[in-house]
C-alpha cells in the first residue's frame, strides 16, 4: 500500500515537473480544458555564450602604478566589472581573471555589444592627486616637449585659468607636470550622491569615503592646507580645489562645471564601482545568435538520439525491467531539467555534455541491478525474491561509483575555469539525482509489477 502511494506521488510529481519544464504544453492544456487557473510562466532555461550567442572580451589592466599586490588589484577589477555588467542586465555573465593582468568577460545574449563594451570601458578611475614641486614639473615639460617647450613652465601650465591647455598637454604627452598621486582612489569610495551648491546652485558630486579612505584623506588635507588637491577622473582633472582646512570626516565634494545630468551620470558610475586600476580592451570575439542556436539544436538532437538508443537497448535486453528503467529515466530527466531552471544553471555545450553523460550513469545503475536480478532468476528464485536480491547486491557498486563521480565533479568545480565548471555542475547534479531515481524510484515502480499476472511470465523479467 505504501509503495502504491509512493508510486502515485511519483506520477503526480512527474506531471507537475513536466508542466514546469514545458510550460507551453501546460498552457495549451489550460486553453483546451478552459480550467479556471492562471497560466504557468514560461521561465526559459539559462543558456551560455556558446549556445545563446554573445561576445567574449579580453581586457588588460595597467598595473604599473599599483602599490598593492597584482592579485588584489585584479580581484578588485573583477568585482567592479561584474557589478557593472550585472547592472546592464546580462544573464549570468562570466567575469574572471586570466594570468597576471588580464580580465575575461563573457556576455551571453546581449543585443548591443558596443553599449556593453562602452559600459565596461567607461567605468571611472577616480584618483586624488597633490601638487608636484614646480621644478619637477618644469623638468617633465622640457623632457616631453623638447624645444617646443620654449618658456613654458609648470607654474603657467598648472594655473587653474589654463585648464584647457593643461588637459591638452595630458592627452598629448601623458605625463603630469602638475600633480602626483596621493594614494587615494576610487577603491576607497563608499558612496556618492548628487548635491547642489547652496550659493550658486551649481551641481556637485558629494563623496563619502570608507574608513581607510577617511584616514588617508585626512592626512592629505592636513599636509596640503593652502595648496591644491586635484580630483582626477579617467586620467584627467575634473576639479582642482584649494584645501582651506583639514577634512577628517571622510566627506569630499567634486565641484567641476557639471550640468545636473552629467553629475547624475557620474554619481551612478561611481556608485556602481570605480576601478582600482585602469583597463583597456585588447580582444573581442562575437558568437552569432544563429551559430549558438545551431549548436543548441545539435546538442538537443544528440541528447534525444542518445535517449532513444538507450531505451531500445534496455527494453530489448531486459524487457519489462527495461521499460521500468525508461520510466524512471524520464522522471530523472524531468527532475534534472527542473533543477536547471530553479537554481538556475547556465547551460553550455560542456554542461549539456555533462547532462548526457549522467543519462548513461542513471541507466548504468539499472544495468547492474537487472544483471543481478537475472542471476537470481537463473538460480531458480521467484521474481519477488530476485528483484529484492538484485537491488541489495547491486547497491554497494552503485553507491561507490556515484560517490567517486561526485567527488570528481566537486574537484572539477572547485579548481577549474568556468567552461569546465558548467560540466562539473551538471555532472554533480545529475549524479545525485540519478542515485535516487535508479534505486528508489526504479524499485518502487518495478515492485508495482511484481504481481501474479506478470510474475508467472518470467520471460518478461529477462
UniProtKB/TrEMBL annotation:
Major site of localization recorded for this protein: membrane
From the record, give the transmembrane residue ranges: 323-343, 349-371, 403-423, 429-450
Subcellular location per the Swiss-Prot or TrEMBL entry:
Cell membrane
Keyword list (alphabetical) reads: Cell membrane, Membrane, Protein transport, Translocation, Transmembrane, Transmembrane helix, Transport
Q: Where in this chain does the record put each Protein export membrane protein SecD/SecF C-terminal domain?
A: 279-449
Please report the stretch or stretches of sequence annotated as the SecDF P1 head subdomain domain.
182-277
Record GO biological process: intracellular protein transmembrane transport; protein targeting; protein transport by the Sec complex
Q: Name one GO molecular function term.
A: protein-transporting ATPase activity
Pfam families from the UniProt entry:
Sec_GG, SecD_1st, SecD_SecF_C, SecDF_P1_head
Which branch of life, at top level?
Bacteria
Question: Which Gene Ontology cellular-component terms appear in the entry?
Answer: plasma membrane
Q: Does the keyword Protein transport apply?
A: yes
Q: InterPro entries from the entry?
A: Acrflvin-R, SecD, SecD/SecF_arch_bac, SecD/SecF_CS, SecD_1st, SecD_SecF_C, SecD_SecF_C_bact, SecDF_P1_head
Specify the Protein translocase subunit SecDF P1 domain's residue ranges: 76-130
The record describes its membrane topology as:
Multi-pass membrane protein
Q: What does this protein do?
A: Part of the Sec protein translocase complex. Interacts with the SecYEG preprotein conducting channel. SecDF uses the proton motive force (PMF) to complete protein translocation after the ATP-dependent function of SecA.
NCBIfam families under this entry?
Answer: 2A0604s01 (TIGR00916), secD (TIGR01129)
Q: Which family does it belong to?
A: Belongs to the SecD/SecF family. SecD subfamily.
**Assembly:** Forms a complex with SecF. Part of the essential Sec protein translocation apparatus which comprises SecA, SecYEG and auxiliary proteins SecDF. Other proteins may also be involved.
Name-wise, this protein is: Protein translocase subunit SecD
Gene from which this protein is expressed: secD
Amino acid at each position: 500500500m505504501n509503495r502504491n502511494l509512493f508510486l502515485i506521488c511519483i506520477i503526480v510529481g512527474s506531471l507537475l515537473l513536466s508542466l514546469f519544464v514545458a510550460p507551453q504544453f501546460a498552457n495549451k492544456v489550460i486553453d483546451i480544458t478552459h480550467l479556471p487557473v492562471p497560466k504557468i510562466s514560461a521561465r526559459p532555461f539559462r543558456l551560455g555564450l556558446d549556445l545563446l550567442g554573445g561576445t567574449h572580451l579580453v581586457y588588460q589592466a595597467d598595473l604599473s602604478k599599483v602599490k598593492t599586490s597584482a592579485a588584489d588589484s585584479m580581484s578588485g577589477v573583477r568585482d567592479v566589472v561584474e557589478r557593472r555588467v550585472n547592472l546592464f542586465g546580462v544573464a549570468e555573465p562570466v567575469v574572471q581573471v586570466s594570468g597576471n593582468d588580464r580580465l575575461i568577460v563573457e556576455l551571453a545574449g546581449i543585443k548591443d555589444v558596443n553599449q556593453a563594451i562602452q559600459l565596461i570601458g567607461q567605468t571611472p578611475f577616480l584618483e586624488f592627486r597633490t601638487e608636484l614641486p614646480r621644478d619637477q614639473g618644469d623638468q617633465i615639460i622640457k623632457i616631453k616637449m623638447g624645444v617646443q617647450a620654449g618658456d613654458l613652465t609648470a607654474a603657467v601650465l598648472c594655473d587653474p585659468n589654463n585648464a584647457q591647455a593643461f588637459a591638452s598637454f595630458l592627452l598629448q604627452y601623458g605625463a603630469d607636470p602638475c600633480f602626483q598621486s596621493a594614494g587615494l582612489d576610487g577603491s576607497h569610495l563608499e558612496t556618492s550622491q548628487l548635491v547642489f551648491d547652496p550659493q550658486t546652485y551649481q551641481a556637485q558630486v558629494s563623496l563619502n569615503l570608507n574608513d581607510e579612505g577617511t584616514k588617508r584623506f585626512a592626512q592629505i588635507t592636513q599636509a596640503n592646507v593652502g595648496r591644491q588637491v586635484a580630483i582626477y577622473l579617467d586620467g584627467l582633472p575634473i576639479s582642482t580645489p584649494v584645501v582651506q582646512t583639514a577634512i577628517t570626516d571622510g566627506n569630499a565634494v567634486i565641484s567641476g562645471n557639471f550640468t545636473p545630468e552629467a553629475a547624475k551620470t557620474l554619481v551612478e558610475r561611481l556608485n556602481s564601482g570605480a576601478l582600482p586600476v585602469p583597463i583597456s580592451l585588447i580582444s573581442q570575439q562575437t558568437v552569432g545568435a544563429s551559430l549558438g542556436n545551431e549548436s543548441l539544436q545539435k546538442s538537443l538532437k544528440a541528447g534525444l538520439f542518445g535517449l532513444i538508443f538507450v531505451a531500445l537497448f534496455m527494453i530489448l535486453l531486459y524487457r519489462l525491467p527495461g521499460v521500468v528503467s525508461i520510466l524512471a529515466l524520464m522522471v530523472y530527466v524531468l527532475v534534472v531539467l527542473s533543477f536547471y531552471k530553479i537554481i538556475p544553471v547556465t547551460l553550455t555545450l560542456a554542461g549539456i555534455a555533462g547532462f548526457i553523460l549522467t543519462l548513461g550513469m542513471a541507466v548504468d545503475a539499472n544495468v547492474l541491478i537487472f544483471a543481478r536480478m537475472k542471476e537470481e532468476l537463473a538460480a531458480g528464485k521467484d521474481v519477488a525474491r530476485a528483484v529484492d536480491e538484485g537491488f541489495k547486491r547491486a547497491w554497494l557498486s552503485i553507491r561507490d561509483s556515484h560517490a567517486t563521480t561526485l567527488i570528481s565533479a566537486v574537484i572539477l568545480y572547485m579548481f577549474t575555469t568556468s567552461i569546465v565548471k558548467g560540466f562539473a555542475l551538471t555532472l554533480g547534479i545529475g549524479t545525485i539525482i540519478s542515485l535516487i531515481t535508479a534505486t528508489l524510484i526504479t524499485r518502487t515502480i518495478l515492485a508495482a509489477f511484481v504481481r501474479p499476472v506478470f510474475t508467472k511470465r518470467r520471460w518478461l523479467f529477462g
